[in-house]
Write a structure and sequence with these properties.
445 residues, mainly alpha, two-stranded antiparallel ribbon, 6 strands
Length: 445
């Protein structure tokens, strides 16, 4: 039955190999079960409920991808997008988290329409290739910066804006140890390196003082329990911004950024993983690409309904491909393990910031590795890219980083008389951000 459903013989694989690959993918991305709730909880959302919806959305979206495409691709709430949701939309712009979920849903509807009409590819083509890579790198720096901040390694300073924290304090020292441990494990290519590091730092935290007589890690009353109810966040999305013109103008650039980051994340992961698996044709086209984009779109809608930031394809799926995964059975295995993890919610909730912060730093390093694809020797390419990379973490906003990079790229193209370097749609996007930054068009603060 499995052979008929997933075409195992045709893809030269076996049930055992697919199960092992699914376990490998799960081990590589299981950190999201602790990290995503830790980030989104800053908005005031219930952390235990977030653990449940993180696992549920990851499992359901991964199953949809497996059944629609038969690809070994796993999905989960995206790193970078969850930071944008929390620190830019909710904490930065003051959007209530229920309204932010509504914007994620609207983004999903647009995403679906663009996918079935083919407009999605035109929007992606409107962004210069170097800027696409720069956005990934900038988000990587942003995530790493948040990790260092959450771990107390970086703290606010009125004179220099930021400074280092107290490295001698228990939580900070434990965070630094976690960064080194994770880096060593990753460099040694240990499967599930990030998860192993999170577990190790969490256990050590039981014996490290955080101050005030408390330990860094608080031992839970139970190790295994029924999953927490998703009710505090499930179907809590609201759409008041659609009925208020000022709120809608504020929402437009946020939805646009969600759309752009969502598209870059999914297209990049889809191409990267399927190329490694040998599915990409010589001309660069991908069989069943339409179905994959449809699965991504459905996943975005599900994430808003369940109560989390956007669910995207995960680059960690490549680890399962490396382990031999070639079909949707790999993804189904990963989805099943996500559901099993729900019964260990107490263990996930006991993970301290000192353990999740190193994971953010290392994920940021992974994302920064793409910088080698940018032609830094060509100034007109390097300048917008570097500005984007720097602006995303320094403005604490992915949207503003993308906007500044697009504006500079457009102005350079015009100033050099090379207007064909960008498409008409690219200039339109740059113009929208320009009007927002200079308050010429009332997008809001």
């Amino acid at each position: 039955m499995l052979n008929r459903l997933f075409h195992l013989d045709q893809n030269q694989t076996t049930v055992g190999r697919e199960l092992q690959a699914g376990l490998t993918t799960f081990a590589a991305m299981a950190y999201i079960l602790a990290v995503n709730p830790a980030i989104l909880a800053n908005t005031g959302m219930d952390k235990a409920a977030l653990v449940t919806v993180t696992a549920l959305t990851a499992a359901i979206a991964t199953l949809i991808m497996a059944l629609l495409t038969n690809y070994p691709l796993a999905l989960a709430p995206g790193m970078g997008i969850n930071a944008f949701f929390t620190f830019t939309m909710v904490l930065g712009r003051g959007v209530p988290w229920s309204e932010a979920l509504g914007m994620v849903f609207v983004n999903g509807v647009i995403f679906l329409l663009l996918s079935v009409t083919g407009v999605r590819e035109k929007i992606i083509a409107a962004i210069p290739h170097a800027l696409k890579i720069a956005v990934t790198c900038g988000i990587g720096l942003f995530i790493a910066f948040i990790g260092l901040k959450n771990g107390g390694v970086i703290v606010a300073n009125p004179a220099t804006f930021v400074s280092h924290g107290d490295f001698a304090s228990g939580p900070v020292a434990l965070c630094l140890f976690g960064i080194v441990l994770t880096a060593v494990l990753v460099a040694r290519r240990v499967p599930g390196a990030i998860v192993i590091s999170i577990a190790a730092v969490t256990v050590i935290g039981l014996f490290v003082t955080a101050g005030g007589g408390k330990m860094v890690t608080q031992f839970p009353g139970k190790l295994v329990d029924l999953p927490a109810s998703p009710a505090p966040v499930f179907l809590k999305l609201t759409f008041q911004f659609l009925t208020n013109s000022n709120a809608l103008l504020l929402a437009l650039p946020l939805i646009l950024t969600l759309l752009l980051v969502d598209m870059f994340d999914n297209i990049g992961t889809l191409i990267g993983v399927t190329k490694r698996a040998g599915f990409l044709r010589p001309d660069g086209t991908l069989p069943k690409a339409g179905r994959a984009l449809l699965a991504d779109s459905i996943a975005t809608l599900l994430s808003a309904l369940f109560g989390t930031s956007t669910v995207v394809s995960y680059i960690e799926s490549a680890s399962g491909v490396e382990a031999g995964g070639r079909t949707g059975l790999t993804a189904v295995t990963t989805a099943g393990l996500m559901l099993v993890a729900l019964f260990f919610t107490p263990l996930i909730l006991m993970v301290p910031a000192a353990a999740t912060a190193p994971a953010l730093v290392i994920v940021g390093v992974f994302m920064m590795q793409s910088i080698t694809e940018i032609e830094m020797t060509d100034f007109k390419i390097a300048a917008p890219a570097v500005l984007t990379i720097l602006a995303i973490p320094l403005t604490f906003s992915i949207a503003e980083g993308i906007g500044l990079g697009l504006i500079l790229a457009a102005l350079l193209a015009v100033g050099l008389g090379e207007t064909k370097r960008m498409t008409t749609l690219g200039y339109v996007l740059a113009g929208i951000f320009f009007l927002q930054f200079f308050h010429i068009w009332p997008f809001g603060s």
